[in-house]
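Supplementary Text 2. Reproducibility record for the structural model of the 418-residue chain.

All settings were left at their defaults, and a single model was retained for analysis rather than an ensemble. We include the record here because the model underlies the residue-level annotations in Supplementary Table 4.
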Amino acid sequence: MNSELLAMLDYLEQERDINKETLFDLVEEALTSAAQKELGETLVNPKVTINRSNGDVTTWADFEVVEEIGDRRTETDVESAKEYDLDAAIGDVVTCKYETSKNLTRIAAQSTKQAIMQKLRQLEKERVNEEFVDHVGELLNGTVRYFERGDVVIDFGTAEGALSAGDRIPSEDYHNGDHITVLLKEVNVKRSGPSLVCSRTHADLVRKLFEREVTEITDGIVEIKAIAREAGYRTKIAVVSSEDRIDPVGACVGLRGARVKAIVRELNREKLDIVHWTPDVKQLITEALKPAEVMKVELDYDSQSAKVKVGDDQYSLAVGKRGHNAKLARQLTGWNIEIARFQYEEEQTFEQRLEEVKSMFMKIPGITEEAASNLISNGYLSLDGIGAADVSDLTGIDAIDEEQAQSIIDYVKAKLPS
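Retained model, structure tokens:
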């Protein structure tokens, strides 16, 4: 067993990255435990040691020094005792070798494997905790390795992490070998399986991705004031700049959208709304409900609630698919937001209503005042109507050519809820 033991410890040292002296101590502890179980009735305080050079296993026990030996399992004579303690005298207790280590080696080979593996797992968890405990809340890049009890197990090189069902984005599928970025949520050495608890749904995953991609955030020029996330569907993030010359939204979007596109790819095409944060609550709520256009905001500070009025054509956009847009706006602002269709006053004339529609149309890039008036003259009174039109329908209207018609329809469809 000696050469096999040394070979096993060499392998574990390299494979598990555990100090060999620690491994020797671990095996000695396991063998001592086995000795106490197997020989405890015949020996006093049996203990096992391993020679670091050749792997020899030696069992030690306490023997009483007597003048005449009556029980060789617990007693020894003065001459034998002096081999281990030159000052040994009758009546002393001396620790001496026990000469049946081969039998113990055979017993240990059968009975200590489980104890050794349990200790190895404990050491591994302690090492992982020491290495990663200071990285909680940070991003980790790993590779999907296997699936266990509903968890996706991720290999980070020196440790493994678990991604539970609740921490996975609903729209994502994972396969062996996939490269994945996660947020380290917790290091829990007491849980069965991997100690690193990871998440793809936590809002801080988005925060850390922006910190990684946007240098102005890393440098402290742009600050993320709030994040609201419905993982897999949409995330809203409110940002502010400490320098007037820096547009916080533009910094997060990046040149030609490069920064935000990188984050969207990392989030598997999850929608991202980046808005300006402001201490003005009305303006903040207006920003939070984008891409919908808000007509009126009424605040009740006592109940911290807001009544928001939007046009008929903006209502579904403000609420959002499955109510996500309104829900995220509430999370982002901390206000209870009630969305309602704007009711025009009875005294409002038809001409006034047309003027409001005209103003709304003129906010569309490429539409002049003349083109807006011509759209109304041709029966278009809402964005829904324009979104449902064909290019040929608009091309027939004065002041709108084919290229403009396509651009107008594309813009309106992008604004309308999918």
